[in-house]
Amino acid sequence: MGAASDPGAASDAARGVLEARGITKSFGDRLANDHVDLTVHRGEIRALLGENGAGKTTLISVLCGQYQPDGGLVTVHGRTLTLGSPRAALQAGIGVVHQDFRLVPRFTVTENVVLGTKAWGGPKDEDTVAAQASAAGFRLDPRAPAWALSVGELQQLAILKLLFRGLEILILDEPTAVLSPPQAAELFKSMRTLAAAGKSIIFITHRLREVGAVASEVTILRQGKVVADRAVAGLDAQQMSVLMIGSSDAGGRVETRPGAAGDVVLRLEAVTVEGRSVRALDDMHLEVRRGEIVGVAGISGNGQTALAEVAAGIIRPVSGRRESAAAAVAYIPEDRLNRGLVGAMSVTDNLALRRYTSRAMSHPLWIWTDRMTALARRLIDAFNIPVRKPSTRVADLSGGGLQRVLLARELSEQPDLIIAAQPTRGLDVASAAMVREQLVRHRDRGAGVMLISEDLDEVLELSDRVLVLFKGAVVGEYSRGKLNRAEIGLRMGGEGAA
Ligand SMILES: Nc1ncnc2c1ncn2[C@@H]1O[C@H](COP(=O)(O)OP(=O)(O)OP(=O)(O)O)[C@@H](O)[C@H]1O
Ligand SMILES: [Mg+2]
What we know:
- With 498 residues, the protein is an alpha/beta fold.
- The protein has 2 domains: 16-245, Rossmann fold, CATH 3.40.50.300; 264-492, 3-Layer(aba) Sandwich (Rossmann fold), CATH 3.40.50.
- The chain is 33% helix and 25% strand.
- It has 17 helices and 21 strands.
- β1 (18-27) and β2 (30-40) form a beta hairpin.
- The protein is globular.
- The N and C termini lie far apart (53 Å).
- The protein binds adenosine-5'-triphosphate and magnesium ion.
- Adenosine-5'-triphosphate (ATP) is lined by residues 27, 30, 32, 50, 52-58, 386, 396-401.
């Protein structure tokens, strides 16, 4: 930071590359952003924090032109940005990496990168992509097809798309939610490299530890309002969570008494599932007993999705057998909106989805809508689903709200087998604690629980037994009391196998 002899540089340094002032956006009677101010400087990594529903996604949707706010102003390099226009945001240099990446599996890395630009993806573009990838510290083959990439690599590809367009303000919406700890560390390194090269990064996360690890500044939202805007230095996770929640009751660790394992409720025998790349399950053997939580640790892309779907009885293995003694199976899929819920339907209808045909809800000729509404009201209450009216469309809920609807529906029927895939992904601290408590409570009631999670801390905290999944097979098994974090971490990466 030199003396302010260059007036342009000086004013840019003082005023920030991006300045949002008084951003206000409501949905019906819900004020999602209430006069939000946000400033991002050149070369800065700014964390954006807040509980589920605090307004983070709404704010970045305004910044990238997806939403027209009701009020407020955004300037980039001092120039006023036309709001509500994705094109204007791109031209101003603002780019977002969404959680679902939005890539084309059949295309190569380069073809995905150039998609939507004037470039056609020839050798010259491949060279550019390769150079930009290595400058950012990504190890990506520009000619590899997207379907063959791991989640970590897909994310690098999504970031490359922004770099190729020369964008300067990069917004990452919960980028680490799908990454293992080493993959996240790698991403942080790249983020620092990019920031050092002058990019500005806005980074959304629910993992408070990560804020200290990579961000220099933090903005915290609570109920649509900014409650903190400051340097990260000198702020610990406890203080951040107090700011987010507005009280010191941060919810927290679940008491983890061991379970009392009973009869086998699910058995997979020599199960094999074909997949396009490493997705397949390969001769998998596994048992879940009543009254135990079996944690499945592993980096995503090692067969988790296939395992969850076979275990839940949704897909059939190519060979091998699934035996289940469960009368009711609850399934919490990782892809909530596509597999679990129907976005265009109301909260009531989603909650009743599994019960339409039950005697309590319907007669052969009609459906008891008042009973459904009553059921919905009860579950909205019990699971703290953040809606005022049961008739709200599920698609209008925040990420945390969606997960609560799904849990309420799946767990309210006293299942005796629960298959939970990434059940706390995207949830804030308090909501994640609620989910973990539910799993433990159902285990104590006698349900068998399979917890598939990339969050190793979560697996270690809750599980009575831990299996490590690597390339579609179990490469390690540990019982409670004999858990070895370092060894499990290595096996997740395919090392240290017996
Ligand atoms: N398209 C929409 N229609 C109606 N309400 C919406 C819409 N988008 C968001 N909301 C509401 O606005 C509020 C803020 O939601 P937002 O998605 O911005 O929260 P968030 O901080 O991103 O939460 P999460 O961590 O759960 O993703 C929530 O109450 C949400 O239900
Ligand atoms: Mg969000």
